[in-house]
Design goal:
By secondary structure, the chain is mainly α. Among the domains are: 50 residues, no CATH class; 97 residues, Orthogonal Bundle (Arc Repressor Mutant, subunit A), CATH 1.10.10.350. The protein is 44% helix and 9% strand. It contains 20 helices and eleven strands. The strands form five sheets. It has a three-stranded antiparallel β-sheet. Helix 6 links the parallel strand 8 and strand 9. It starts with a strand and ends with a helix. The relative contact order is 0.09. It binds one RNA strand of 75 nucleotides through helix 4, strand 6, strand 7, helix 5 and strand 11.
Length: 479
Amino acid sequence: METVTRFAPSPTGYIHIGNVRSAIYPYLLAKQQNGKMILRIEDTDRERYVEGATELIEDTLEWLGLNWDEGPIVGGPHAPYFQSERKAIYHKYARKLIASGRAYADPTPSTQIEQYRQECNANKTPFLYRNYRPDNTPEWEPGIPLRFKAEPKEYQWHDEVMGDMHAGPEVQDDIVLIKKDGFPTYNFAHIVDDAEMGVTHVMRGVEYLSSTPNYLALYDALGIKRPKLVSLPHILAPQGNKKLGKRDGAKSVTEYRDDGVLPEAMLNYLACLGWNDGTEQEIYTKDELIKAFSLDRIQTSGARYDETKLLWMNGQWLRRIMDEQGVNALYERSGGFWPETAHNHTDEYRKQVLAIIYDRLKTLSDLRSMTGYFFADPEIDLDMITNNKFLKKLSESELEELLKTSIARLSALSHWDADSLQDVLNQLLQDTDRKPAELFSLIRLSLSFAPFSPALNLTMSVLGRDTSLARLNAVARAI
RNA sequence: GGUCUCGUAGUAUAGCGGUUAGUACAUCGGGUUUUCAUCCCGACAAUGCGGGUUCGACUCCCGCCGAGAUCACCA
C-alpha cells in the first residue's frame, strides 16, 4: 500500500521552529517510500482564523523544499483541502453515527456544562461528560452540537515512536463531533479526512497521545481501519521545560530565512533534533535525510532547541556550498544580504568579496556588517590604530614611517595579485624587522578600520591597487 | 486529582548485561606569519535517587523523585 502522510496545520499564524517538524517528518517518510504527502488546512475554527496564514504556511514549506503532492495550489483527487469546504462530508459521516446510535444531539446549554465541569474540579474527579449524558436527546439539526456516544473499554495500540500503548475506559468520553456552528471539531474532522484521503501515517505532536483512545473508538464506530500512529515529542524552549511555542518567542521559520539562514541548514538541524540514524553523521542533504530517515529512531523525549547549533550548522552549509558548488552558487543565495553601498559595485566584485569572506559567515546577513569597507572608504579612526594591542608600543613617527615604507614598496609592485602581494609583505617584514603582528595590523586597520577582515594579501588584491594605496596614504597623512 | 509519557555531560545524542561510557555544539587551552573566522590538536564534563535480579546493571524489574502531556462546542 502506498504511504500517504499529511501535514495538517491550522491557519492561525506562522509556522515556527516548534511545530515545523510535524511537516518535515511526514515529508521525509513519504518521499522515502515513494508515497505522497498531503497538505490539508484545518480551518474549522473561524475565531482563530488568521488572514494570510495559509500563504505563510505554503511559503514556509516551499522554502524548506517540503513539496506536498496534494493540497492547496497543486490540487489532487481528494479536493478540497480546506476543511471549511468539506462540511458536507463530515455531516455524511455524522449521520452514519447517528444511524448506528453512536452519536446524539446534545441540547445542554454550555453554562450547564461548565457547571458540571466545575463540580468535578471541586471534587477533584476527572470530568467525563458521559456521566452527564442527557436522557432525552432531540433530533440532530443545525445549531445543536453533536456528540459521540462513547462505549468505554480497554484499548491497546502501537505508536511508531512511543511503542505499545494501552488505556482504560476511564479516558473515553462523549466528545463533541460537530459544533453548534455546524463545523466539525478537530477530533472528528481529522478522522474523516484521513480516511477519505487514504492517509496511512498520522504524524502529530505527543499532545494528542491522551486523546488517542477516543480516536480509536471513532475509527471503530465508523468502521475505519486504523492508520499508523506516530507521536512526535515536543521541541522544548531554550529555558524551562515547556514546549517551544510562540509565547516563548519561537521565531517563525521564515524569519530565519530573512536572517540569512539556508534552508538546507534549517532542514538539517530540525530533522536531526530528536532523530538520528545511529551513525555519527551530522550534516545531511535533503536526499540523505530521505534515505536515512526512520520512524523508530525518533527520540521519545523532548529535545531542546539550540539556536547556537543551528547557526554552527548554517556555517557548515555555507562552506559546503562554496566548496562543492563554487562561488557562483553561494553568490546566488546572497541576494538581499549585502550592505547598501555594495549596490554600486559589479557582481564580479561582490563575488570576489564573497570568496574571501565566506568562511567568516555564520549567516548570510553577516555580509551586511562584515563587508562595508570593500564597498566604501571606511572612516579613519586613528584610535583604533594607537590602541591596538600590537601597535600601541609604537610611536606616531614609527607608525608613520612603517606605513610610508609599506606604501613605497607596494606602489612599486607591478602585478597586484594575491601571491605577489604576499611576497612584498614578506619582504617588508624582513626589511623593516617588524613582527608580523605589528606590520600586518597596521596595514589591515588602515585599509579596513574593521575589527576583523580576511588575510591581508587577499583583502588588498580584492580592494585593488588604487583603493588600497589611497587608503594607506590617507592614513599616513592623518597620523 | 485521574490517565498517559519521558529522565546519559550545559545542550543534542550514541551505545550496551562486561566499553577508559563514543560523537557533535557550547566552554576553556594550544597550533596554522596580524585580527576575526575556517581548519587541526587538546582539556573539562553525563548514566536522577533507592532497592532488587545477576558473577557483573547506564542497560532488565520494582519503588521513589523530577519533568512534561491531557482532562474545550482549540487544534
